[in-house]
Amino acid sequence: MKLELFSTEANNIWKKAASRPTSEKFHFEVDIYKKLLSFFLVGDYYYFIFNIAILDIEFASTEIEMVLGYQPSEYNLPKLLDIIHPDDRPFFLNFENKAGQFLTMLPIEKLMKYKVRYDYRIQKKNGEYIRVLQQSTAIEQDENGRLIRTLSVHTDITHLKPDGKPLLSFIGLDGEPSYINVDVEEVFSVSKEFLSKREKQVLTLLIEGKLSKEISIILNISKQTVDRHRKNMIARNNFNNTAELISNAIRKGWL
């Protein structure tokens, strides 16, 4: 899915669920830090506060540099949307759309008793993709129960789920019921293409027996970029090496 369309659709979804913009500055409280403890999984993580009313990430924790390679100051909403894997963008939109419907149906007093959990792939600053588990919960709402701010934690779960279809769950807190791997209406079409145009070009030349250095000359890109595309294709499909990538591409007719 193209970034411009993806960003527009994401903003439209959030605007439906958001309260009116507020100029009030949000202040951290001790209970917010305690709430973080219920999110954590084994793995590297970072967290951020998203102001839905003004469509802006107001705060990102310093751990983001360890996980993604970005400074907190570099991490804003356009950046987040930009680095989500193109093939996972429809999943992201469908999950956010479903989450908005689910949270809107909750009584006001229960809005902060749920966290929304789903996974998708995200690109690090060095170009590599990892799979993150996003867990989000409301931390501020207006008197009508409309969202103002959410707290989200991204945990690197690549070692637990290197590939597979993203899944959505609603996790109840304080004794509320949970809904695991919920069915999601496909409002936004999920692309069947899982190789980018450039990846297809690299893969085609690999099948022809070209070396990375030769491919870099043919495509007028650096050898490091060629190697990154090759490694991403291997990792995304859970292969062990280039030979497996090539054999599966030929056998399954990817090109």
What can you tell me about this protein's structure?
The protein is of the alpha+beta class and 255 residues long. Helices cover 37% and strands 20% of the residues. It has 2 domains: 3-172, 2-Layer Sandwich (Beta-Lactamase); 197-252, Arc Repressor Mutant, subunit A (Orthogonal Bundle). It has helices at 3-17, 30-36, 64-68, 77-83, 89-105, 197-207, 212-219, 223-236, 242-252, and strands at 45-51, 56-60, 114-123, 129-141, 147-156, 168-172. Helix 6 (197-207) packs across helix 8. The longest helix is centred in the middle third of the chain and has 17 residues, at 89-105. The protein is elongated and about 65 Å long. The chain starts with a helix and ends with a helix. The mean pLDDT is 86.
Can you tag this structure with a few keywords?
37% helix, alpha+beta, Beta-Lactamase, 2 domains, 6 strands, Arc Repressor Mutant, subunit A, 9 helices, 255 residues, six-stranded antiparallel β-sheet
CATH fold-level assignment of the largest domain:
Beta-Lactamase
Shape: elongated
Main sheet attributes: strand count, strand direction, barrel closure: 6 strands, antiparallel
Question: Strand order of the main beta sheet, please?
Answer: 2-1-5-4-3-6
Percent of residues in helices: 25-40%
Assembly form of the protein: single chain
The total number of structural domains is 2
Series of secondary-structure elements, N-terminal to C-terminal: HHEEHHHEEEEHHHH
**Cα gyration radius (Å):** 20 Å
Coarse structural class: alpha+beta
Number of helices: 9
Low-confidence parts lasting 5 or more residues at pLDDT below 50?
Answer: none
DSSP strand content: 15-25%
CATH homologous superfamily label of the largest domain: PAS domain
